[in-house]
Design brief:
Elements (H helix, E strand, L loop, with lengths): L5 E6 L5 H10 L3 E7 L3 H10 L3 E2 L3 H6 L5 E4 L6 H10 L3 E4 L7 H14 L3 E3 L7 H12 L5 E9 L4 H7 L12 H17 L2 E9 L10 E8 L4 E7 L9 E6 L2 E6 L2 E7 L27 H15 L8 H20 L3 E2 L5
Parallel strand pairs: 1-2, 1-4, 2-3, 4-5, 5-6, 7-10
Antiparallel strand pairs: 7-11, 8-9, 8-14, 9-10, 11-12, 12-13
Helix pairs in contact: 1-9, 4-5, 5-10, 6-8, 8-10
The chain binds nicotinamide-adenine-dinucleotide (NAD).
């Protein structure tokens, strides 16, 4: 049977919207119906490059009956108000990370999606890497034994020019945070995806080397609901930056990922599967914000299209997207108060 075409609209025609347009082209039975941007020049150039049309306002785009899914690619501070508008217009939503800038906004999005019965997928493309899927399976099967520790290290380089150029980057109002809320959220999502719910956090967040409002460096100690302990380290101000590193240790084994590749695998009685060879780490990713593959977005767009067509939950729905926001908010609170923050809802 022929699949019904899904129409997409994009709000925000900056850097990341290129990944969205390419992902829409790459998946079956989809079409980019139109785009909008408060900067009309950006919208027209982007529309021309992607053979689509410009809508002059968000309201016009949302009124199009040909559009089923709205991609939100604006600065992060606009994610919540635009998601609520899109949900109220009855559109499914592919929302760039971070889902929102705080839990109040995240809950407003959740309420709007529930009230309008629309699906949301929050972009967290690293979850779709083969190595991550393998790691998730092996942890779920219990092959690592009792989980003992889970650590994520995200030591990146972003120049002062990177912050100055965007205008919105590095501000509380539009970025909502720095090394954690903008860059680190990817790894934080992976950590909680693999290790399970966080029970408590103690943390420091500091602005050490960049002239920005938000943190450029943070360190946190976590206790997971399982009893395992963990560490989050995130910075955007070290030179030259190193690859993201996720270390998962259990009583029967250790697996380490560098970027999207398995850097080491030592598991009692369980050889590394042959179909995932030790990967090649993209060493540019830690210092170039555009140096990442389109593959993760394509896989996540496929997940969303399939979720819509088969009326199932997408992998990173709004409830999943909220989890990393809660962890980051707790880190900020702990750093501000000097106290351990206990999580109320351990799901
Ligand atoms: N998934 C990833 O790996 C990844 C990578 C980069 C950026 N992002 C996220 O994508 C978002 C955008 O980042 P970017 O680097 O593309 O930013 P950008 O500054 O390059 O682009 C943002 C665009 O949104 C437009 N815009 C601003 N307010 C708008 C509004 N109210 N309505 C319509 N358009 C509006 C701007 O004019 C600009 O063209 C951020 O939330 C960021 O965190 C995700």
């Amino acid at each position: 049977m022929e699949e019904k075409e899904l129409g997409f609209g994009i709000i925000g025609c900056g850097m990341i919207s290129n990944w969205h347009a390419e992902a829409i082209r790459a998946i079956r039975a989809t079409r980019l119906v139109g785009v909008t941007d408060t900067n009309e020049k950006s919208a027209f150039e982007f529309a021309q490059k992607n053979s689509t049309v410009v809508y002059h306002s968000v309201e016009d785009l949302l009124a199009s009956p040909e559009i089923n899914v709205i991609c939100i690619c604006t600065p992060s501070g606009m994610h919540a108000p635009l998601s609520v508008k899109a949900a109220n217009a009855g559109k499914h939503i592919l929302l760039e990370k971070p889902m929102a800038l705080n839990l109040k906004e995240a809950d407003e999005i959740i309420a709007a999606c529930e009230a309008n019965n629309v699906k949301m997928e929050v972009i967290s493309q690293l979850r779709f890497a083969d190595a991550v899927k393998q790691l998730k399976n092996i942890v779920m099967r219990g092959d690592l034994g009792r989980l003992v520790s889970g650590d994520i290290y995200m030591k990146y380089y972003r120049s002062q020019e990177y912050y100055d150029k965007g205008g919105w980057r590095g501000t509380w109002k539009m970025d909502g945070g720095g090394a954690l809320m903008n860059q680190g959220i990817h790894g934080i999502d992976l950590l909680q995806y693999i290790m399970g719910p966080v029970k408590s956090v103690f943390a420091y967040a500091r602005t050490l080397a960049r002239a920005i409002e938000v943190e450029d460096t943070a360190a946190a100690i976590l206790e997971f609901k399982s009893g395992a302990l963990g560490v989050i380290q995130a910075t955007t101000s070290i030179y030259p930056g190193s690859p993201r590193r996720l270390e998962i240790n259990g009583s029967k084994g250790t697996i380490v990922l560098e970027e999207d590749s398995i850097a080491s695998w030592t598991v009692e009685g369980c050889e590394m599967p042959e179909d995932i060879a030790l990967g090649h780490t993209n060493s540019k990713a830690s210092r170039d914000p555009a140096a990442f593959s389109i593959e993760g977005h394509i896989r996540q767009f496929n997940d969303m299209a399939d979720a819509i067509r088969n009326d199932r939950k997408p992998l990173v729905d709004q409830y999943e997207g909220r989890k990393s926001i809660e962890i980051i908010m707790s880190i900020y609170e702990s750093s501000r108060t000097g106290k351990v923050v206990e999580f109320k809802n351990l799901t």
